[in-house]
Design brief:
Length: about 375
């Protein structure tokens, strides 16, 4: 697989001007690009929503079924909140100037059954660097049951994906329990572990320990206290994970897998004919700007454009930065994807899944090296 290189043709000063304006914003307002304590306070709220219901389940025997379901839903909402608000900023290094502080709060990913190392490799490096580039972006990788990119191979089962996709989204966090192991083998095979100055044995040991402890705590805990049977404990676990997985899947999909975003093809030479920052604008979409509740709960992930341009800046600054980004994009004639309503962007996602469910027509080939194509 060739190294991907973004080459602006024709070149533009958009990136330099935008970076300069954002830098000036923080300097003129005497602001730090990191958290001012807001994210940590939100993280504590989300951790409380996640852990308090579980403590109740551990401590109180004989709870009625409706109460257990309610606690599971609240815990799932809290779990997704921890991932989006606290873990996400921390693992991007956007929470604090201190790497140790970021690592400390980023360890909250282990409460989701994930891995800090795997997340940084899959999300920070692959997804953020190569957004919507098939074969490089982990989030749109080829799947046998879902097709998220128009260049991905089509299979007969995909013709029904717009009907069943939402039923699979709850499996997101559960899939992390297995996916991290398979991804680790890929990193070893491609020499990425050596680049990160770690070893397969070390990372495998950490995965086995952290995920084993996670399962023992959240499935075995109610068994140890005698408040739930094995079957009830498994169902409760699946409920929590399903609620969290659905929320996080939908929020992440609405940023890139919609009609408004593009899916460029990488030329055989590894060249993408676009400035990297313009590429991020073309492949990413915002939704519901100004919705304070959504912005609070999702950790600013409704401002995905600003997040992809400046992932090391805390999400508390995204609403302000969005005005700078939008004005600069308009000035340079660069697209700025944004949907004012949640229903509008969600419908766009479903329509795009429907488009991708159709068997593509055969494409004529040429002996010449193809230019980078843009497609929805």
């Amino acid at each position: 697989m060739p190294t991907v290189k973004f080459v602006a043709s024709p070149r533009t000063d958009f990136a330099a001007v935008l970076r300069g304006r954002v830098k000036a914003y923080f300097k003129e307002n005497n602001l730090s690009q990191k958290d001012d304590g807001t994210v940590v306070r939100k993280g504590i709220v989300m951790l409380s929503l996640y852990l308090i219901p579980f403590i109740v389940v551990l401590a109180v025997a004989g709870l009625p079924g409706w109460a257990i379901i309610l606690l599971g839903v609240v815990q799932g909402i809290g779990l997704a909140g921890v991932g989006m608000c606290l873990m996400h900023d921390s693992l991007h290094g956007a929470l604090s100037p201190s790497q140790k502080v970021n690592e400390r709060w980023g360890a909250s990913i282990y409460l989701l059954g994930g891995s800090a190392f795997s997340w940084k490799m899959q999300h920070n490096k692959a997804h953020h660097t190569y957004t919507n580039l098939l074969g490089h972006d982990e989030d749109i990788r080829e799947r046998s049951y879902l097709r998220f990119c128009p260049h991905a191979p089509w299979r007969p089962i995909h013709r029904y994906q717009h009907w069943y996709a939402l039923l699979l989204y709850p499996l997101m966090t559960i899939s992390l329990l297995v996916k991290d192991f398979t991804s680790l083998k890929v990193y070893e095979r491609e020499g990425l572990l050596a680049q990160e100055k770690t070893t397969y044995a070390r990372q495998l040991g950490m995965l086995l320990f952290s995920k084993g402890l996670f399962l023992v705590l959240f499935i075995g805990g109610p068994l140890a206290t005698g408040t739930l049977t094995l079957g009830a404990s498994l169902l409760y676990f699946l409920l929590v994970q399903g609620v969290a997985g659905f929320i996080m899947s939908v929020i992440f999909q609405l940023a890139h897998v919609v009609e408004e975003t593009t899916h460029p093809l990488v030329a055989p030479s590894g060249i993408v004919e676009s400035d990297w920052m313009i590429h991020q604008l073309e492949t990413t979409a915002n939704f519901c700007p100004g919705n304070r509740l959504l912005n609070y709960y999702t950790g600013g992930l409704n401002y995905q454009v600003e997040h992809h341009l400046f992932p090391n800046i805390s999400h508390i600054h995204y609403p302000a930065l969005s005005h700078i980004v939008k004005e600069t994009a308009t000035e340079f004639g660069v697209v700025y994807n944004q949907s004012p309503r949640f229903g509008q962007i969600f419908s766009s996602h479903l329509r795009f899944l429907r488009q991708l469910s159709l068997k593509p027509a055969p494409i004529a080939t040429s002996s010449a090296e193809p230019a980078v194509l843009m497609a929805n």
